[in-house]
Structure formats: C-alpha cells, structure tokens
Amino acid sequence: MQATGVKPLIAQPQSRFSAQGSRQTTGALSIRNVSKAYDPIGINVLAVNNCSMEIAPGEVCMIVGPSGCGKTTLLNAIAGFHSISEGEIWLDGELLCGPDKPKAEPGADRVVVFQNGALFPWKTLIENVAYGPVVQGRLSRGDALEKAYEMMVGAGLGDLIDKYPGEVSSGMARRAEIVRALINDPKVLLLDEPYRSMDELTKSVMHEALLEMYDRTKVTIFFITHDLEEAIFLGSRVYVMTTRPCSLKKVVDVNLPRPRDYRILSSEQFRLLVKETEDAVHEEAQKAFEAGERELA
Amino acid sequence: MASTAASIRGAASRRTTFRQRIVLLVLSMTRPSLLRGIIALATFVLLWQIGSTWHTWTGFRLPWIGTVPPPTEVFAIWAGLLGKWGYWQSWYLSFTRVFSGFIAAMLVGIPLGLGMAVNRLFYDMTFPPFEILRPIPPLAWVPASLIFWPTQELSIAFVTFLGAFFAIVINVLGGAKSIDVRYLRAAQSMGAKRWHLFWRVVLPGTLPSIFVGAAVGMGITWEVVVAAEMISTGGRGGGGGLGFFIWNSYLGGSLPQIVVGMISIGVAGYMSSSLIRRLGYWLMPWRRLF
User: The pTM is what?
Assistant: First the structure.
C-alpha cells in the first residue's frame, strides 16, 4: 500500500466519467519531505517540517493534530493556494509543486470543501453545483444543470435545488458543497474540517452521507479534523500530526470493514482504535499547550 | 428526460408568471406596512395643517411652523401648477441632470472601484489622488466647473456626477475588497481562471455594495443638482430645474410655491431611490431572503 503513489502511474485519459470501476487507480497523492516556512517581517516561522506522506488511490486519509499545527497549510499547498518552501507534492505521477515550482496551480482535480462552507450565496444550490463543469467549459450550462440535478437527487437534495444557500440548513449546505466538489470528478477531495461547527446528530447524518458518496465514487479523500471518532469512523488511515512545525507522527491503519454504519461506533475494535489514536494526539496536544504557555510567558 | 431538463432550467431561472405578479402586487397593497405608511403621511400633513393654522383659532402664532403656509394652501397652488408646462419642465430638467450625472458616475465609478480592488499597482497609483479629491464638497467644484466646461448644462451635470462618483467608488472598492477569500479559492479549485473569478465571483460578490453606493450616490446627486441649479440661475442657457423653481419662487415671494418645490424634490428623490431599490431587488434575488 505504502509504495503505490511513489512512481508515476499510467497517464490518465481526459474523461474519467465512465471509468467508475478503475477509479481506485487515480488519486495517489505523494507528499515528499515538504517544509513550509512563513516569513512575516523576517522572522521565520516553520509551519510544516519535512513532512512525508503516501496516500493511496481511493484512500480516506484523515489528518488529525493539535490546533494551529499546520494541517491547513499542507492542504493549501496541495490545493495550490500557498507555496511550499521545500520538498515535492505529486498527484498521480504529476508534479504539483516542487523546488522549481513552489506553488501548485489550483485545479478541479483537487477540489476543496472549506471549514465554514463556501457555497456562492448569489447562486442557487443547483447553480452552485453546476458551477465547476460550466466554468471549465467541460459541459454546456444545460448539461451541467442536468448532471447537477441527477447528483443532487442522489444525495437527497432533490427538493432544494432551487434554494439559495442562505435558505437551507448548514448540513444541507455542506452536503451540496460536497456534491459541488464531486461533480468535477476530482482525483482528490480536500476537506478542511467540514463538519466542525455542527451538532453531533447532524454530524452523524453527514458522516453516513459522506461514506455513501465515498462508496459510490471511491475518490481519494484528504480530510482534516479534530474529532478522533470522526477520523476513525470515516478513515482508511488516520495520520496523526505533530504540533507545529507539522510533520507526521503516527499512522493508524483503520481496518474496519466497509461499508460502515453507525453501529460500528460501539464495537470493541473501534474503541481500541480511538484509544490508540488518542494517546498519540494527546501527547502532541500537551506539547502544543506547553509551547503556547511558553510563548505567553 | 428532455422535459425534466426543461423544468430544471425553468425552475433555475426563477421566472414569475404575469398572474403571479398581479397577485403579488395586490398582496403588497394590503400589507400592513403600506397602510402604516399612508397613516404616517396623513398624520404628518394633519399636524402641519394644525400647526400652521394654530394662530387663526388661538391668536397665538407658533414659532417657525406658524410662518409655513398650511398644506391646504400649498396643495391648492400645487394643483394649479400641475397643468403648467413650466412646472413639468423643471422636473424634466432636474431628472435629466440627476440621471446623466448619476449614470456617468456609475459607468466610470464601478470599473474604477473594481480595478482598484483587484489590481495592487492600479490601486497604488489611483488611490492617493482619489482620496485627496474625495473630501472636496461637490459644490466647491461649481465655480471651477463653470469656468472649465463650455456650457452651464455641462457644468451642472459634472457637479452632479462628482456627487455620486465618490460615494460609488468608495463603496465598490470596499465591497470588492471584503469578498471572502474562501469564495475565490473555492472557484479556483473548481477550475475558474482569472477572467471567471472576476465575472462570476468578484462582480456578484460586490453587487450589494454597488447598490449601497448607488443609493448613497443618488441622494447626494439630488442635493447637488438643486444647489447647482440655484447658483447657476444667472447665466445664459442652462438654468431651470426644480432648484431654480424654488429660487424663482423665493425671488417672486411665493412661500407656498417654495414648499411645492421642496416637496417635489422629496418626491423625485424618493422615486429615484425606489427605482434603485427595485433594480437591486431584481438583480440580487438571493438578498430577498433578508
């Protein structure tokens, strides 16, 4: 598993619509010795330090770590919003960013779903979902709306197509946002704490919806979270990150069977995995806390 | 399949039928806020009537309001004016000046504000002179523009333009700059290029601020046009308009006619800003929720 993404895989054809079955062969994300230093007014702050990860195609990769440790910096580098200082990031044998090209080009093969949601308030949900294919010139507006409609019905949003984001609940908005990402047929879905501000009940519904979408598409997911139970419930692997500067501390393989539902939450195996992750995370959280104390002193 | 597609497109465009519109219009007439508005206006006119005729019943003239002609007198004069071509000519002239200045300010101000927001170099080069010119009251431009522009009409239009221009630019600039970076990033990550970012994110994201600027600018435009008309009465050509109407009534010593002119400006200003509100309502359907 670990070695899959290292060397370039076969070049992918332009359209991957019909390639549902071979889906697991795309979306290998390889992060190699990546460092990122911020340089505000001459003081170097190291956010990410020599971080390496190999994410297999179709893996649900859950990133956990203390607040402010640099997880989002890593996500922004993959998405192409920020540059990196050292190292390389590869996606399916294509160099996203490296020494000669510190900032990746943002693109629809790596769609981001943001912490606070970023549906365009001036578009209805269906127009939001159809945005990607239209703006890329891949589908006509009519075809994009039709495809958006199909996907939204599949995600249980059929009644809300004509609503504006301000008119629907945060859970529905987030679900629409994930559909808006998936319509682009991305290789990797980048999620930055998408369910952070939601209550537990909504969250559990959202988790099952995401798992259902994952089981259908098998898209590689790069998912940042603080919630360990969420990480283990959803993930194929949980990557525990160290406190700032961020690097990989521990990888927990989640060998729970798929498809999963909420009953797994009460299984012995699940509790053991949470315990294992918790120990690693707690240690880092403690370090982060103490570092914070020192800074204040 | 084709019919679903059509219905999706139909639903997505949110069109209302003619019948629905009639129903909405009737509903809006019966809404309590309209009734309250009518009562408020009637009360205002009644208090005015009592205030300005107080001395005829009590012998005591109220300060200020006692010297104002009562509404009965004003409306009588007004009714007489409604049939006069000159009165409507004043309306026409002021409206033309307001809208030519205002539309010119929108046409220049919106692109300028957006350009300043999206391009750092352009911002650095334009903002300092803009900020120095902005605090100069439009009326302080009157003498200079009378000298500068060949006709008086153009001078007035220029001063009205300035009134709206600064309000529009500063609002567009602020609105475009405060667009959440998440929207831009989301669009980029879905494959939007620079051009798309501008047309499909920056522009709709700035639209609410454009309308705030337009509403403020429209108010200033009316203030400026009336003052400019009053000042520019003497010269050849130009002249006229509701500002001149008031000034002329003052020179002629007709107090009720002054009040007619004032109320006319109030009504004209209200019509102009409700036009902008309607336009905003129509262009920003997502804002109807709030």
Answer: 0.77
